[in-house]
Write a structure and sequence with these properties.
CATH topology of the largest domain: Methylamine Dehydrogenase, Chain H
Strand content: 25-35%
Radius of gyration: 29 Å
Number of helices: 11
CATH architecture of the largest domain: 7 Propeller
Distance between the termini: 63 Å
Shape: flat
Number of strands: 30
Number of domains: 3
């Protein structure tokens, strides 16, 4: 549209549309073919409107001379257009007024970009380009067979040792090791068992790396046939016990089996019990809190739904309830070439920046899809269907280490209880393919009520919360559960965030049956090594599963939403009594990764604000 319309290159425009129709969309499903025909007709109308607006009636006549043969079969739609150059003030004529509006033009541009992005990701790969991929496919199968044979021999050896058949164990061990040294049962058992803190032996890491280079149909075939079923989840009591007993081998912030010689992050001091029986954190003076308005961004035409800082703190992405996403420069005095307005055909419920390359923004939509937008090239690079039945993608989180993103999809909220069903899945951002489905909560059902997820700062762990009050932690390499604990009887977990150094985990929860809870909302910090409560912040009554919390980089301030209101608090010694500043109409909060500045989205004024938080010291 930016190339052919301003220069009136109707011949090249028509040729390109015909090429796309015959060579791209003809190979796709009928729905996309019909959509492209409709958009082609709209592009032709935009060309005519552009010529009329610039008093180039000769170009209108030239265009119709070129395409009249194709359009004469659409007399109902195009009949009035053949005489448009003879209509006085066509922009006010009821048949043409809509096509002269800016809103229609922007909608056409967004629809065309979305359709082409979707089509180019679905078009089949030419056969001539599949030779290398076929070779990779065969190589990956060979690697899988070799890995399975090694695992089979290891398990046979362990079984023989347990049954006391030393002769069979010796044969199996020698077959596995490929040498003839003298065999000792105790040495074999030690060799077969994983070392302390080491991940269970499975397929080689190189296999997963190579799988990323395969086409989607091959990836699906491999994943369907090669995924090892996850072991049945232990009960809540077992999960808690497992966390305490395994803390020495899998410590927070350190990979299993990895020791770089540096001291692990210092865990916060343990909770102390006051005279009233309440848990309090480290004894520090609780300062007051001041918030200074730094910037305000106006431009959305509907209430804000979500806003997120980019990993470098230079940009902000925000979405509104009418399906519009905007990318802003965080410093309004410094324009950025990333600034853009993106219009989608559905509501965007959540946003997430990809931290590795910092140029990809992921949208979670109300149609059960996740879209990836490249802020540099200003186009969608993928659009994946997460679920047909769980239509609301309420949370998308990107790994800071690997090309992986986690998706929480749920059914639409039902009253105060929120979403009743939800799933957590992991996806590859390069191939746009699903890696694994993870179950959360007290049920092994994949449709348990998942509400939120978060990656650790090192990208080695992922935490997820659910409406049944469970927090579950996974190892990102093995996809297995490594810990889990309940936040309280009758509580629902609405949001989770890792603390400084990945040594602790913050949860936002509501409800509860404990004495004095009164169904209120609270933010709690848990020590991951022991799953004990470090401190608790009482946020007040109300709230819903769509509320969220955010901790600033220094760990000094906590921002939260609660039923359409926001609050920023200082995290002092007695956190429940920390000073806080209320913000009305706030539905989304996020901290600048490099400063104590919080961005908040307003549902009432459709404005995005940035505030700077500062502790007030008494004179």
């Amino acid at each position: 549209m930016d190339t052919f319309l301003p220069s009136y290159q109707s011949k090249r425009m028509v040729s390109l549309c015909q090429f796309l129709e015959s060579n791209v969309f003809s190979k796709l499903e009928p729905e996309l073919q019909r959509a492209f025909k409709d958009l082609t007709s709209s592009v032709y109308k935009k060309y005519v409107v552009n010529a009329i607006e610039n008093d180039r009636s000769d170009k209108v006549t030239e265009f119709f001379d070129r395409v009249a043969g194709r359009l004469r079969h659409q007399a109902t739609e195009w009949g009035p257009w053949f005489s448009i150059q003879y209509v006085k003030n066509a922009a006010r004529h009821p048949d043409f007024a809509l096509y002269f509006t800016k809103a229609w033009s922007e909608s056409l541009r967004a629809s065309l970009q979305n359709l082409l992005s979707r089509a180019f990701h679905k078009v089949p790969m030419p056969s001539i380009l599949r030779f290398h991929l076929d070779r990779l496919y065969r190589r990956n199968l060979q690697l899988r067979v070799e890995a399975l044979e090694v695992e089979k021999t290891r398990l046979e050896t362990l079984l023989a040792i347990q049954s006391g058949d030393e002769a069979a164990a010796a044969v199996a061990a020698k077959a596995r090791e490929g040498d003839r040294r003298e065999w000792n049962p105790s040495e074999a058992a030690a060799d077969m068992a994983p070392a302390s803190g080491e991940e269970p032996r499975g397929r080689p890491d190189g296999l997963e790396v190579q799988l990323e280079n395969l086409p989607l149909d091959m990836l699906d075939a491999l994943s369907d046939g090669g995924q090892t079923p996850s072991p049945e989840r232990p009960s809540t009591a077992n999960l808690t016990a497992t966390t305490a007993s395994s803390s020495s081998s899998v410590g927070p912030g350190t990979a299993a089996g990895e020791d770089d010689g540096a001291a692990s992050p210092t865990a916060p001091p343990g909770p102390e019990e006051s005279a009233s029986g309440e848990l309090v954190g480290p004894e520090r003076e609780t300062p007051g809190l001041g918030l200074d308005l730094v910037s305000s961004f106006q431009g959305h035409e509907a209430p804000i739904v979500c806003c997120r800082y980019s990993p470098d703190g230079d940009s902000i992405a925000s979405s509104s309830s009418n399906g519009t996403v905007r990318v802003w420069s965080a410093d309004d005095a410094t324009p950025s070439n990333r600034n853009v307005t993106i219009r989608t055909a559905c509501k965007v419920l959540c946003l997430e920046w990809e931290p590795r390359r910092q140029k990809l923004v992921l949208f979670g939509t109300s149609l059960g899809t996740v879209k990836g937008w490249n802020v540099d090239s200003k186009r969608f690079v993928f659009d994946v269907d997460v679920s047909k039945s769980l239509t609301d993608v309420v949370c998308v989180k990107c790994s800071p280490r690997d090309p992986i993103f986690a998706v929480v999809a749920s059914t639409p909220a039902k009253g105060a209880e929120g979403a009743q069903r939800g799933s957590l899945s992991l996806w590859n951002s390069r191939s746009s393919s699903k890696i694994a489905d993870l179950s959360v909560g007290r049920s092994v059902d994949l449709d348990s009520a998942v509400t939120c997820a978060a990656f650790s700062a090192d990208g080695k762990s992922i935490a997820a919360g659910s409406l049944d009050g469970m927090v579950t932690l996974y190892d990102c390499s093995s996809k297995n559960v490594v810990a889990g604990f309940p936040v309280g009887a009758g509580c629902s977990v609405w949001d989770v965030k890792f603390g400084a150094g990945d040594a602790s985990l913050w949860t936002l929860s509501g409800g509860g049956e404990e004495e004095g809870s009164e169904g209120g909302c609270r933010a709690q910090e848990w020590r991951l090594a022991t799953t004990e409560l470090i401190r608790e912040v009482d946020l007040g009554p109300g709230g819903s599963p769509r509320d969220e919390i955010a901790i600033d980089p220094s760990g000094s301030f906590l921002a939260s939403t609660l039923g359409g209101a926001g609050c920023v608090r200082g995290l002092g010694g007695n956190a429940s009594a920390a000073a806080g500043t209320q913000l009305e109409g706030v539905v989304s909060v996020d901290w600048n990764p490099n400063a104590s500045e919080v961005v908040v989205g307003s549902s009432s004024s459709s404005v995005v604000h940035i505030y700077e938080a500062a502790a007030l010291v008494d004179p």
